[in-house]
Amino acid sequence: MKPSPPVISILLNKVFPRDICLRQQRNNRISNKLPRMNGKLHIPSSTPDNTLPTLVRSAPKGGNAFKQHENAHPSMINLEDFLEKRETLCLTEGGSSAWRTITQASLEEYRVHHLYDGYPDSTKAIMAMFGGFIAKWALIWNSTNLIDLGCGIGTKTPPYVRGLLDNNLKYAGLDPLAENMERDYAFVCGRLEDLKEASLDKRFDLAVFATSLDHFEDPREALLLAGDITESGHVLIWCGLHDSPLIARIDVSDMTDRVCRENHNIISRTLGFLWYSIFTWPRVARDLRTRENKLETGQPLDKLHFSYFTESELKDLLLSIGQINEFAVCPGTNSVFVSLTVGVTTEPDPTPA
After folding, report:
1. CA angle 268, 269, 275 (to 5 degrees)
2. Which of 88, 93, 167, 196 is a plausible cystine mate for 56, CB 3.0–4.6 Å?
3. What do you get for the CA distance between the two ends of the chain, in Å?
C-alpha cells in the first residue's frame, strides 16, 4: 500500500481549489515569479476618464488580420454589428494596484487552461453542467445574446458556451488581460467597471460570471454593474463556496475513490481506510479549522481572489441587490450556479415547469 500523501496535497490539489483552477501551492509559486512574467503581460495603463473606447475590427471569419480604425473613437457602437462581426473593443482602464497584482497572478493558470483547454476532467464536467444552466435560463428569459464577464485569454469561446452558439445565441467575452487579441468571438478588453462608459447603442440580454465574481474587488458593485449593462438585470453566476462541510465532503469522496482505485482486495482497502483515519483525517480537520479561522478574520486563502464566499454570505449578498431565481449547488462539488435578477426584490422570474 502506498503511503498517505501530504495533507497539503490532499486539501489543495485534490479538493475544490484544483477543480476550479485555484491550486494554492501552484498559485504561490506563480505569484513568486511575477517579476519575470511582466514582460509577457500587458494590462492597459490608466488614461484620462474622458477617453472613449477604441474599436478594433477583425477580419471576416476565416481571416487572420486585425485592422484598427483610423478614427478609433466611435461615438456609438452598434451592439448587433459588434457581436455579428466579432469585433474587439478596447476600453480605457483604471484599477487599483491590488487588483492589478491579483490579475497578473492569474495569468499563468489562464495560459495553461484557457489556451489549450487544459482543464481537469472534473472542471470540464462542471462546465458542461453550467452550459446547460445557461441554456435553460436563456430560453426562459428569451435571451439572444450574452456577455461573459471574465472570459479569460482563450482565443476560442469557453467550453461552457460552445454548444449554445449554434442556437442563435450570440456571445461576447470581457476580460482585462490584453493577451491574444485575435479571438473567434466578440471581445471587450477592459474591466466591467469601465464598460458602462462604452457607447453601446443598447444593452446585453444576459450577463454571466463564470468563476470570476470572486476576482472583483467589490462583488456587490460588480453585480450591480452587470445588472446595469443588461436589459432586464438578468445575471447568471458560477462560483465556488468555501463552507467546510462542502470542502470536507469533496475530500472524503476523493479519498474513497483513491483508496478503492489503488487497492483491490478487502484487506488492503481496510488498511488504506485505517491509514487515512489515523494519520490523515486529524490533519484534514486541523487544516479545515485553519481555513475557517482565515475566513472568519477576513484573511485571504490564496493570492488570486478578493472574496471567499460561504453559502450564507453569497445568498445575503445576492438578496441585497435582487431576486434569486435559482440557487443550485452541484452534487459532489462546492460549485454553485445562480440565476439572479438584479433590482427585483418581490416576485421571482418564472421557473421551468
Report:
1. 90
2. 88
3. 51
* For residue 22, pLDDT beyond 70: no
As to burial, measured by CB atoms within 10 angstroms (0-12 exposed, 13-18 middle, 19+ buried), residue 152 is buried
Residue 282 has a pLDDT of: 83
Tell me: pLDDT of 274 over 60: yes
pTM of the model: 0.72
User: Which burial class, exposed, middle or buried, applies to 64 when counting CB atoms under 10 A from its CB (0-12, 13-18, 19+)?
Assistant: exposed
- The SS3 of residue 171 is strand
Whether 186 and 82 have beta carbons less than 8 Å apart is answered as yes
Please state the domain extents for the chain: 7-20+243-297, 33-241+309-342
Q: What is the dotted CATH code of the domain comprising 33-241+309-342?
A: 3.40.50.150
User: Which residue spans within 112-194 are E strands per DSSP?
Assistant: 145-149, 170-175, 186-189
Are the beta carbons of 191 and 176 closer than 8 angstroms?
Answer: yes
Each residue's pLDDT tens digit, 99-150: 566 666 666 666 666 555 667 788 889 999 999 999 999 999 999 999 999 9
CA distances from 316 to 132, 232, 244, 282 (A): 25, 21, 18, 32
Strand 186-189 and strand 88-90: the pairing is parallel
